[in-house]
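Researcher: Go.
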Amino acid sequence: MVLLTVIAVGLLGLSSISIRSSSRGDAMAIARANARMALYMAIGELQKEMGPDQRVSATADLAGSTTGDALGPGTPPTNNTPIGGGNKGLTAVQNGTRYWTGVWQNANVTNPGTLIYTRSPVPQHRKWLISGNEVGAPGSNAYTPGDQQVSVEGDGSVRDTSRAVVLVGKGTAGDANPETVSRYVSAPLVEIASDNPSSRNAAGRHAWWIGDEGVKAKMNLRSPFDRNNDANYRSLAAQRRGWETVDGFENYPAPGTPGEQSIPKLISIPQAGLMDPHLRDSGGVALGRAFHSGTTESFGVLTDTLQGGLRIDLTAGLAQGLPTTAPGGILNGMTATSNIIPQSVTSRNMKGPKWSRLQDFYEMGKTLRTARSLAVKPATGTADAAIAPIIADFRLLLGVRLVNSGGGNNFKTQPCAKVAVSLANPYPYPLSWSTALDLEVKSEFAPGQFSPRPACIFDGPGQPAFLAQNASEAAVLNRALFRIPAGTLAPGEGRAYCVSGQTIRPPGSTTQVVVNMGVFNSSAPSDFKNCVILDTTATADFGSGKRLDVREATITSQCTVELRTAGSNTAVLRRLERFDLDNAPYAVTARDFNAATARQFVNPVPLQYYGFQVSQPGYDYGTILPSRDQLGLRSSTLRTYADFNLQATRFRKPIISYNPPPYFMMIANSQSALPFAQPGGDTGGEFTKNMLADPLPWGHSPFSARRTVLFSPPSELTSLAQLQHADLTGDDYYASVGHQPGNAVGNSYASPFLPRVNTVKSRTDFTITGFSSQTSAATNYYDISYLLNAALWDTYFFSTMPDTGPAEPLNPAMVKVDPEDNSPEMRSPLEAAGHLLVNGAHNINCTDKDAWKALLASSKYLKHPSEGGSGSDAIFPRSLEQPVNASLPPTGTQEDSFAGFRKLSDAELDAVATELARQVRLRGPFVSLSQFVNRSLVSLTQANVNNPQMQGRSGAIQAALDLGGMNITPDGTKTVFTSIANLNYEKVNLQADGGRTPRADLVGGATTDLPSSGTDGVWPPTSHDKNPGAIAGILADKDMLTQPRFRTEQGFRSTGIPGWITQADVLQIIGPVISARSDTFRIRAYGESLDPNTGTPVARAWCEAIVQRMPEYVDGSDEMTERGTELTPVNEKFGRRFQTVSFKWLSPDEI
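Model: Structure:
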């Protein structure tokens, strides 16, 4: 009874036909009645299979090869095993069956919203939506696309006309030839029994096919925005489809060309020939090809295909303020105190990121609409993130001043320190601090841990200290605040500061002292007299000579650098934890003094230099390291912009790292680097190297791009991918951490800190303090990109509904179900989705290259604000606030790639679309948006999976970009960047030291003596070597370190720079319109009446209907917002209502 009601509702507005007799005069009426009956059955089957939210659709063309290519007729698929095992239900395709529509669901129907955080979903096939499959349980199909009995021959006819019929033929797809017949669609004929018991023949036959309109690109969308104006985030959100890039459609109206105004009037594909006569005059070849690529009918319902229910509107949620309690039935509902990633899923005590952090980001963007500048703001709690300049470079010069005591051979050895720091603004707005900033260098260890002292003049009298053993001990750096004056950094620019005068601390003093700093090039940076000096009372006899050096005993010295607002101990802006001040080769670099030379050195003498610099992809650190074969050590090759968060408040030392990555460590203590010439006072060139420019180049190298813009709080939020600019990192200790990606949301590169099969992994962090002593702690590492994508993409969206005024979404792609609707529900976070549809919703399970290309080309003819004029290339900007125009092709080294953005040519769009279709075949069908956005959770060597390295490396879009040649290809053989010549230097090169041991950053003994296995299965060191720290220990997948075939999986140093086009950059444009399912379908139905004596057809009839799923449920007793167990049994089974929006009879020539 329910199904009959569903059919009746779906056919509202259609007239009925009475079936009279089977005489020849009524044959056509019977044929039409049978066609209508076929249509009824198709709608009923569609309602049953695709009405529920948690169903997805794709065509049989999803079947492919091991490389994701489409199959020829009759070829068995080799992409049928999903990650997680099982079977996708794919078969070979025939001419006539390639465009059959299939239905899938998540194999996990119990807790899909929970399991997706730790496992890739497994699709389970239910039905092929074709006549003859109406009966049987889900997964049971009388007909599959591999059935030869329904195949179409080379002449365009079916093999057996009594068993199948062509429903898409030459009238739609073009005259039959080997190329066009692959686009034909056939359907099995189902016999209709005669009501005459004596008749041996059926009374008639019917057939139907349901075509998926959501896997096509809409052809009648026109952007309402003027191409001559600067783009805004509304215009960026896929307002049109770039059909002019598709083969055969080169003359299709583009923005600003004649005919553009007529695009919305298009109601069928053949009408496109009226706007572009070439399409009609060329025999309609392109129009026939476009039937399975394009559509004029496609709207999407904003539902969650993973958990079911309407998606939640973040526009309203953030504008109205976060609630104190979460809505029921939603695993990660918004509240003021809860995490975005549900703690119940991770079973961890993550300190963030919290929804309140996202609220702050939203408010900041609103403020920037008018303020156009940023002010420094500290992080006041463990869950907070700061707005502050990046510490791009920190330098510490340690030395000694010798002061004669009593006129004889006795001298005091006074420790001296000079500090320099470069601060960089990663934002596209001026960044100001109206009050001074304090930089403090702290000893990181607990009282009593050191014996005798950390970082001291080892053979000086009383071992004068640079770092204090505890707060009550005098040391030159203890409680010294290096004060940076108030200032402003221009967008993307850096500036260096150093100690600008001499400060002498009294003997034994632990009183806090302020040391003034000034702009580097105006503060006599090479004058070591401008330093901090700790006076001492102890003396030593230099008559027989003294050897002086900076070191500790067998225990490593570690310092933390903290940037704060002046006068506060808690207002943290940046905290870089536990830089290692090691000097293992002290014996060969110590300075020899005697009484005579000591008298000549009246100024400070440098003994040891340490430099810590954000690892830059364009800096050839091989020229700095002791030998080029050490390239990769000391963080010299890392994916700085992909794996680390440069806007983080806190950076720490993970696993067995020597220093907090991504900071490269530079040590200098030779006389060539640190002058040992009387009278002293010269810092040497290492301290001032590459720091004199103002503004200071940073980002790529000290010699190229002067501006680097990485993050921009958008003034408007239209796509979830714009949240890549928010600092949404966090672990079990703090939010805003440095060892997670800074552009997390929407991106999908695998983190090196976890095995690729994991999203959460407990590993051991070691604090190594001596030859054979260390402390360890189990620490959870998170693939924050994966977890955030899983938390956001299925459940949330941006309606762009304004706070006040008419209830009209600012993003025109969001259309109201009822154009007159101005109800309060339009601005309700929970209810807005029920009143909206997505115009041109694009099903991510699409395997059609032309459809993907048209979607990607939606950003053509947009003018970025940094451009002098509008162009025709597609733009994919990291932000609309990037201050520098794109270059095509990009340089990879200059400001176009560090403060600019990316454009793609038509040829590049074609390459990406081709690869994207392959990725969908290899990974699909996707049962949710987050599954599509995320990488697959698969080990490097998992069996029975096509190319597990590629699937686990990144999500589908990123793989298409990289494999399509838009960046550096994953095998490291090709680059799009014109100024990156040596790809060997671009490779991340973390190394093993023989066997399966990570190579030590500072080689002291023969090996690092780190066992290759242990409690956490990765790198559990027992420190026997002098220098056991190894950045290579961050790699959780050992095979990347030890197996040559996996070495390129470490990636490339330039990954993630603004000129490296990322998945999130693309999703900022197409994200608002993509869906894991289709809600619009084209049904073609056929009926025929048969001669009762011969069984031959007497009359034939064809019809076509467009049906649209709506937000309302079939059983209206449930509100649109209800979900899961709240639903009635009817709605659990049949879901949301399909509505017939158009119907027409077709002539044979239209088939």
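Model: The mean pLDDT is 92.
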